[in-house]
Design brief:
transmembrane helix; single chain; 88% helix; mainly alpha; transmembrane; membrane
């Protein structure tokens, strides 16, 4: 049980560190780059959902 609490504490600490560093050093994304990423992200999420359904039923 102690290992579980230690693991959860380390995960929480890592996520908190990523949030703090991301807020401090991240640059704002330009709209052109966001549109380019969105063009790829939506079809990939759809493909992931279809493949997940195929994996579930087979």
């Amino acid at each position: 049980m102690n290992n579980l609490f230690l693991l959860l504490l380390l995960i929480f600490g890592g996520v908190a560190l990523m949030v703090v560093l991301g807020e401090r050093f991240a640059k704002p994304a330009d709209p052109e780059r966001m549109a380019q990423l969105r063009r790829w992200l939506i079809p990939l999420v759809g493909l992931m959902l279809v493949l997940s359904l195929v994996d579930y039923y087979l």
